[in-house]
């Protein structure tokens, strides 16, 4: 019992239970605990840009083979597109089969559009810019601006260029490479300090949720929310499970290994909050720095599996709820447009509703005002979105590492089986996982 209480997983689980109880019995006080969750996520986010920069630069410079780095990047993008397409298609199929919006007979003219005013501008920007605008946004106006705004993709682009330049310099770039490696250890050490307050962040986030929405709202979310949770579960267990099995690993063992991170994501509804920890854990499994550093940050914008299910499922739900007839052409349009709009989702305020609005703008037949219905339960769907996206990116890193031969399979299986492994210098960052180093 003492071992459970001392582990990060145990502390997070206890905080989760305490948060629910506080929200149930002292809702007014629970709502005031929201800053605990918000503050924890802000502490994590403040380090993400510099952490991504250090990991990517060190990984590329240490590899020295720029062709291999480019090959990993291309394979990652191909994988992301294929898996995202499967997720989008799954959302469409399940919405058509189970028809969660059928029989609602909602009159769009009676819905209040004021609730969507905060999302309209962002949706128009996202849908009107197109692919060219999205690609241009990858280029920061200044290097400092990319770090200041916390735009992970812009930081990633600069880090790739910086790492490639260091690799080309050879021995002359060694001092800078060594400095960046040392800096990354400092950042991970800071992250290790921050992660110790994760239970407080979880307590604050879940207490606020229960206090604000009521414990009953956690179970009575309607057919759409229930179907979305089932869809994400099917995708993770069946689709990602099969993909990981082909790579030679077990999805349940991977999820057990990442259980602390999954609990934090569940409570905070943010996969950003565990980005540093998952990178550390995947490296500890034996996946090379360069692969982890490229796949995970890129996946946060290009590999949003659960997010993709949400887009197509919610779009068809709105059509069904408002008695809008949709053709195969509409369905294909939703599928193709969502492939583009979902790529710009990460970092956009209210990204789920914004991207859904941007997708519906190209299909005038479906009343966009129907978004008001989805908005009312969006937070609850956000839990499954965050969990599904997080799991999808962890699986992608393992699969691409296996595909490229960048993973120590023997070590990976030993770690996933909970066996003792010989630690490497990078494993001093294992404190992020909440597990003691094993000798």
Overview of this structure, please?
Helices cover about 75% and strands about 0% of the residues. It has a single domain (about 1-435), classed as Sodium:dicarboxylate symporter (Proton glutamate symport protein, Orthogonal Bundle). The protein is globular, with a radius of gyration of 22 Å. α4 (about 35-65) runs parallel beside α8 (about 150-170) and α13 runs antiparallel to α20. The chain has about 450 residues and is mainly alpha-helical. About 50% of the residues are buried. The protein has 21 helices and no strands.
Layout of secondary structure:
Elements: H1 2-6, H2 8-25, H3 27-31, H4 34-63, H5 66-98, H6 117-137, H7 143-149, H8 152-169, H9 174-195, H10 198-213, H11 222-246, H12 251-257, H13 259-268, H14 275-284, H15 289-302, H16 305-321, H17 328-341, H18 351-360, H19 371-375, H20 378-404, H21 409-416
Helix pairs in contact: 2-10, 2-13, 4-8, 4-9, 4-10, 4-15, 5-11, 5-15, 5-16, 5-17, 5-20, 6-18, 10-13, 11-16, 11-20, 13-20, 14-15, 15-20, 16-17, 16-18, 16-20, 17-18
Summarize the structure.
This protein has helices at residues 2-6, 8-25, 27-31, 34-63, 66-98, 117-137, 143-149, 152-169, 174-195, 198-213, 222-246, 251-257, 259-268, 275-284, 289-302, 305-321, 328-341, 351-360, 371-375, 378-404, 409-416.
């Amino acid at each position: 019992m003492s071992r459970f209480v001392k582990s990060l997983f145990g502390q997070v689980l206890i905080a989760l239970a305490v948060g629910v109880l506080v929200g149930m019995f002292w809702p007014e006080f629970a709502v005031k605990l929201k800053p605990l969750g918000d503050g924890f996520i802000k502490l994590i986010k403040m380090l993400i840009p510099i952490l991504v920069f250090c990991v990517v630069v060190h990984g590329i410079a240490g590899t020295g083979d720029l062709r291999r780095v480019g090959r990993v990047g291309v394979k990652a993008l191909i994988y992301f597109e294929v898996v995202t397409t499967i997720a989008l298609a799954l959302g469409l199929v399940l919405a058509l089969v189970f028809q969660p919006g059928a029989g609602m007979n909602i009159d769009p003219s009676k819905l209040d559009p004021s609730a969507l005013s905060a999302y309209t501008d962002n949706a128009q920007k996202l849908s009107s810019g197109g692919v060219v605008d999205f690609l241009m946004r990858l280029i920061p106006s200044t290097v400092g601006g990319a770090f200041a705004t916390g735009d992970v993709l812009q930081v990633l682009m600069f880090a790739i260029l910086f790492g490639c330049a260091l690799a080309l310099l050879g021995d002359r770039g060694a001092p800078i490479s060594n400095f960046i490696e040392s800096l990354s250890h400092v950042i991970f050490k800071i992250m290790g300090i921050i992660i110790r307050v994760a239970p407080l962040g979880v307590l604050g986030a879940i207490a606020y949720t229960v206090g604000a929405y009521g414990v009953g709202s956690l179970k009575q979310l309607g057919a759409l929310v229930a179907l979305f949770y089932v869809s994400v579960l099917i995708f993770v267990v069946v689709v990602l499970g099969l993909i990981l099995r082909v790579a030679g690993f077990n999805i349940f063992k991977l999820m057990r290994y990442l259980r602390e991170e999954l609990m934090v994501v569940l409570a905070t509804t943010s996969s950003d909050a565990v980005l540093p920890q998952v990178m550390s854990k995947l490296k500890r499994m034996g996946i090379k720095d360069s692969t982890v550093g490229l796949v995970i940050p890129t996946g946060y914008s290009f590999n949003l599996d659960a997010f993709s299910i949400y887009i197509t499922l919610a779009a068809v739900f709105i059509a069904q709820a408002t008695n809008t007839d949709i053709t195969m052409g509409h369905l294909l349009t939703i599928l193709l447009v969502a492939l583009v709009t979902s790529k710009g989702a990460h970092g956009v305020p209210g990204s789920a509703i914004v991207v859904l609005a941007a997708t519906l703008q190209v299909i005038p037949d479906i009343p966009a005002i129907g978004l008001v219905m989805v908005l009312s339960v969006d937070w609850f769907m956000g839990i499954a979105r965050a969990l599904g996206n997080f799991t999808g990116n962890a699986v992608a890193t393992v699969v691409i590492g296996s595909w490229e031969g960048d993973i120590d399979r023997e070590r990976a299986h030993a770690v996933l089986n909970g066996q003792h492994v010989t630690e490497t210098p990078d494993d001093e960052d294992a404190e992020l996982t909440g597990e003691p180093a094993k000798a």
